[in-house]
């Protein structure tokens, strides 16, 4: 083939060549001008080139098909037009010849002539330097309006530009609400007067449609689709005659942008005037969101706008870091803010390096370490179990060193963070599959802080650890195991009962010949509760992780060996780890309420990390409330009970918890008020999970503390679950002992009064409950001998007034003494007395609740205030269940006021959802009026929001569908700025929902499972459950193998050997 051969494609058609090179030989000037003309022709925009090529091609085709004499007249007008434009074009080419923007290549590339255009990959791109400037072109700027993806148009920056209608990218007006704004039209007074004086008001009816369709025109505002002019457009005018369209006011938007820029200038001056003020820099950075989109909330920004905003804030923080140097006040918060914004811009490698730099500089920062733990544990691509574990241990060591050098005021705060990190660490270890290691850590800590030998109380940390190691390696029974005597007993006597052999959980006779079988076997082993095995057990030989040596837990125990940590914090965190309810304590240092709101620690009721048996949930709600004695006996242990029902070895876990609670209750150092609380907790545990053993345990405890009114009340509440009459006898017997108890225990009588009263109200005997309360307070048996009915009514009012005053005095006294739960029970009794004596009117009781709520809030009693609001829920529920008249708007307003104070309280959220269940419109309005951005919602609020969508979607007329439910899940878990995106509870709820509504199409559930693998990298159970459920064909064999390899790559524990199948 010749070198000049041309590919036979229509798009590569060459231009016509002259017949002979010797025909005409133009001079150099005309040749250069001609070449330049061709080059300029190629530089024209695409549309220009298209028209010229179309003309040439058409012309060629016409010449070949028609006679020349017929073709000449046909194209004569175009030729005349071509001649007219030759002169201006020549002048234009001369101007380009002298241009400094580009150089005319007179030689060029021969291929350009062949293919008719430049080679796009040989043309260098213009490089921007910011604000539309171009490198090398000092007097030129890029014209955005005329440029597109293929061409860049330059304009002179020296000449004044005619600004077009296009707007700026970030601060444009495209972010304004596009919906039509309406306003009411005030009715004219004369018309109103005329109508008011009329005998009747005429109502205009629409005319009937005639056969000539004239009636359609009379119905103003209707759209007629039968017009000969085509489809008519809908009129934007409102249907309501009392409304008119408000024209968009560009001046208002301009004024808003001007005010925003003026405020930015003021903040910038403040920051430059106070270079070491962190508050000034943070205020300037926070103001950048108003510059990007004035008047728009940050939560409505798109992903690209969020990244742009993050870049702006990072530039400000980098400038601030030059002045707020290491060692300066506010440096820690500045680094935290920089990393928070950089998370949206940097990749994982750069983010990890920034974290390391920050932690090297601020190695004792509690704030940075807590955020770093989230970064390490939630990393989607760089997660490794050992790396994350090392980060947790290093954090505990740093906190330990900070606690030793801190003063008393800051030491308590550091201890709280230590307990939180410990709880997060053990939950992480359990999620990765190392259950025995997590249980062993808690056993060692309980032994250290509750059963330590008294002879070692003044010993050093190393000596205490050596003695504990000796006890651990001796293989005697530990806390929670059968025949456990404790560390102190072993240290004093050197004797102890050997540990019992743990049952084998793996059946070696079952072959694992498929990945589906592997998933089934691994799921069975992972869901079983297992205590650490002894070194003599068979499982310890086949699975080394079943046996936990002291060297495996020493690095965790040593930073927590100091005696400054309060023992009750260890107990409370252990209860939360085991999914037990919190103890109803008033101590400030306990953070069980905050743990319920933590996205990594929150768990829904009945969660066993399994969605195999999922069903359509009617309401999804995470428990988050202040525990009280009455609530503890009602449903405090329901979550654990639901969890145990799914356990293959539930008896082992139940006996372990029973032994731990029994051992803690028998410690002599707890024979105090806290010990009484723990004994009450133990009775509630028995009543809920071991009802046949409740009476025996309660009598044994009462024999040890025969004068405790609180324990008598606990025993009665336990009996009230099954037999109300026996419970009333216990209350009466306990109240008859009030003259023989010590004076400092009289305050606990309120527990007996309140519990018996509520028990009778629940059984329906409201009048008898009030009468018994009056009799008990006045010291008689309730029989009133009167001659007339009027005397009986008068006596009843007098006694009721005397009772109310006594309870008011007791409430004030208990509040002053710091016994907030006693004060709450007194206030609740006052509200119930008012409710029953005013013919079940809710106005007066609600006023009492508001009065005492304000009183508790003034004295910083947030716990007491929240408990009182929970008591108010009980009264409202009773009123609604018995179908008594009420005003829904009043009750809704009461609950909304309570939710403003405690937006995460699940008791308030649940009742509010039930009241507003049938009022979809008000619910939408309430959500629209909410000012809290979705990025700031806690995991409890997200669970409530999602649960409401699930409940509404079950009704066709509610306006919610499965798509709105999926949108709620997606907003909660998949948004870049979400704070709950790594919550196992919400991911499990989503998978349950998709699995329950999938039917035969499992693709949506499969997508959720794959997303969960990225967002929950430490959750082994998530991967195993997905393999078990989707291994029947939804996941291919290659995908199943990839999941198995992912488990090994991340370092998660796999009990079943699967290497032969990979």
UniProtKB/TrEMBL annotation:
Residues 16-30, 38-60, 76-92 have a biased composition (Basic and acidic residues). It comes from the Eukaryota. One of its GO terms (cellular component) is catalytic step 2 spliceosome. InterPro entries: NRDE-2 (IPR013633). PANTHER family: NUCLEAR EXOSOME REGULATOR NRDE2, TETRATRICOPEPTIDE-LIKE HELICAL. Pfam families: NRDE-2 (PF08424). This is DUF1740-domain-containing protein. Keywords: Nucleus. One of its GO terms (biological process) is regulatory ncRNA-mediated heterochromatin formation. It is found in: Nucleus. Its main location: nucleus. Residues 1-92 are annotated as: Disordered. Belongs to the NRDE2 family.
């Amino acid at each position: 083939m010749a070198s000049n051969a041309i590919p036979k494609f229509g798009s590569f058609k060459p231009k016509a060549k002259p017949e002979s090179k010797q025909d005409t030989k133009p001079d150099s000037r005309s040749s250069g001008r001609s070449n330049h003309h061709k080059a300029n022709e190629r530089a024209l925009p695409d549309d220009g080139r298209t028209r010229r090529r179309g003309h040439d091609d058409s012309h060629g085709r016409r010449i070949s098909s028609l006679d020349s004499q017929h073709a000449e007249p046909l194209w004569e007008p175009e030729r005349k037009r071509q001649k007219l434009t030759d002169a201006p074009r020549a002048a234009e080419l001369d101007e380009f010849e002298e241009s400094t923007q580009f150089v005319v290549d007179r030689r060029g590339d021969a291929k350009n002539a062949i293919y008719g255009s430049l080679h796009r990959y040989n043309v260098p791109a213009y490089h921007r330097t910011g604000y539309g400037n171009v490198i090398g072109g000092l007097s030129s700027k890029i014209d955005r309006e005329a440029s597109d993806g293929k061409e860049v148009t330059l304009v002179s920056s020296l000449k004044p530009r005619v600004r077009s209608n296009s707007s700026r990218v970030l601060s444009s007006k495209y972010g304004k609400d596009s919906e039509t704004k309406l306003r009411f039209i005030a009715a004219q007074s004369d018309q109103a007067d005329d109508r008011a004086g009329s005998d009747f008001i005429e109502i205009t009816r629409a005319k009937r449609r005639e056969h000539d369709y004239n009636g359609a025109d009379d119905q103003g505002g209707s759209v007629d689709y039968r017009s000969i002019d085509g489809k008519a457009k809908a009129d934007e005018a409102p249907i309501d005659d009392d409304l008119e369209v408000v024209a968009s006011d560009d001046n208002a938007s301009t004024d808003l942008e001007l005010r925003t820029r003026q405020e930015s200038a003021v903040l910038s001056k403040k920051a430059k005037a106070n270079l070491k003020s962190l508050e000034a820099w943070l205020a300037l950075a926070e103001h950048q969101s108003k510059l990007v989109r004035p008047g728009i909330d940050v939560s409505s920004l798109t992903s690209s706008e969020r990244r742009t905003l993050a870049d702006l804030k990072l530039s400000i923080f980098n400038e601030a870091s030059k002045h707020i140097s290491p060692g300066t006040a506010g440096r820690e918060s500045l680094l935290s803010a920089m990393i928070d914004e950089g998370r949206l811009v940097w990749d994982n490698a750069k983010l990890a390096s920034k974290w390391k730099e920050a932690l090297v500089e601020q190695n004792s920062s509690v704030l940075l370490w807590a955020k770093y733990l989230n970064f390490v544990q939630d990393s989607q691509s760089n997660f490794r179990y050992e790396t994350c574990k090392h980060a947790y241990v290093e954090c505990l060591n740093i906190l330990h060193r900070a606690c030793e050098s801190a003063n008393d005021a800051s030491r308590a705060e550091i201890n709280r963070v230590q307990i939180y990190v410990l709880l997060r660490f053990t939950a992480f270890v359990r999620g990765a599959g190392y259950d025995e290691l997590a249980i062993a850590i808690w056993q060692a800590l309980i032994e250290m802080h509750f059963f330590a030998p008294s002879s070692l109380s003044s010993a050093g940390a190393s000596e205490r650890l050596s003695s504990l190691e000796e006890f651990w390696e001796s293989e005697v029974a530990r806390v929670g195991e059968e025949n456990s005597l404790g560390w102190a007993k072993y240290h004093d006597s050197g004797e102890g009962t050997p540990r019992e052999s743990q049952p084998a959980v793996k059946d070696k006779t079952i072959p694992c010949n498929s990945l589906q079988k592997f998933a089934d076997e691994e799921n069975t082993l992972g869901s079983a509760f297992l205590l650490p095995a002894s070194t003599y057990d068979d499982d310890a030989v086949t699975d080394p992780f079943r046996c936990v040596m002291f060297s495996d837990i020493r690095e965790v125990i040593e930073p927590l060996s100091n005696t400054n940590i309060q023992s009750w914090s260890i107990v409370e965190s252990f209860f939360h780890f085991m999914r037990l309810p919190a103890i109803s304590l008033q101590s400030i240092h306990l953070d069980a309420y905050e743990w319920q709101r933590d996205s990594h620690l929150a768990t829904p009721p009945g969660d066993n990390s399994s969605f195999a048996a999922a069903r359509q949930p009617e309401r999804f709600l995470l428990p988050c409330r202040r525990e009280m004695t009455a609530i503890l006996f009602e449903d405090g242990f329901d979550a654990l009970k639901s969890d145990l029902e799914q356990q293959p070895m539930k008896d082992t876990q139940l006996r372990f918890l029973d032994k731990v609670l029994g051992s803690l209750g028998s410690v002599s150092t707890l024979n105090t008020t806290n010990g009484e609380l723990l004994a009450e907790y133990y009775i509630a545990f028995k009543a809920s999970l071991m009802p046949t053993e409740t009476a025996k345990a309660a009598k044994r405890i009462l024999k040890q503390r025969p004068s405790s009114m609180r324990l008598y009340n606990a025993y009665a509440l336990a009996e009230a679950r099954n037999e109300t009459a026996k419970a009333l006898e216990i209350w009466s017997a306990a109240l008859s002992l009030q003259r023989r108890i010590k004076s400092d225990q009289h305050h606990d009588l309120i527990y007996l009064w309140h519990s018996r009263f509520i028990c009778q109200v629940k059984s329906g005997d409201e009048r008898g409950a009030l009468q018994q309360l009056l009799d008990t307070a006045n010291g008689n048996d309730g029989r009133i001998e009167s001659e007339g009915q009027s005397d009986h009514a008068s006596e009843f009012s007098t006694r009721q007034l005397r009772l109310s005053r006594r309870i008011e005095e007791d409430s004030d006294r208990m509040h002053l003494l710091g016994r907030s739960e006693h004060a709450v029970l007194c206030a609740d009794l006052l509200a119930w007395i008012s409710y029953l004596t005013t013919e079940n009117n809710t106005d007066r009781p609600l006023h009492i609740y508001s009065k005492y709520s304000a009183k508790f809030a003034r004295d910083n009693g947030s716990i007491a205030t929240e408990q009182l609001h929970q008591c108010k829920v009980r009264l409202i529920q009773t009123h609604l269940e018995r179908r008594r008249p009420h005003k829904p708007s009043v009750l809704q307003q009461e609950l909304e006021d309570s939710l403003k104070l405690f937006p995460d309280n699940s008791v308030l959220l649940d009742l509010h959802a039930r009241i507003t269940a049938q009022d979809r419109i008000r619910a939408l309005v309430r959500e629209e009026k909410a000012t809290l951005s979705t990025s700031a919602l806690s995991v409890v609020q997200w669970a409530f929001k999602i649960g409401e969508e699930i409940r509404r979607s079950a009704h066709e007329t509610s306006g919610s569908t499965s798509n709105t439910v999926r949108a709620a899940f997606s907003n909660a878990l998949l948004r870049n700025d979400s704070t709950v995106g790594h919550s196992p509870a919400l991911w499990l709820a989503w998978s349950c929902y998709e699995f329950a509504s999938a039917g035969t199409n499992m693709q949506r559930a499969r997508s959720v499972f794959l997303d969960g693998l990225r967002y929950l990298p430490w959750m082994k159970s998530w991967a195993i459950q997905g393999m078990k459920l989707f291994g029947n064909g939804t996941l291919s064999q290659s995908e199943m193998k990839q999941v198995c390899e992912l488990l090994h790559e991340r370092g998660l524990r796999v009990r079943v050997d699967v290497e032969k199948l990979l």
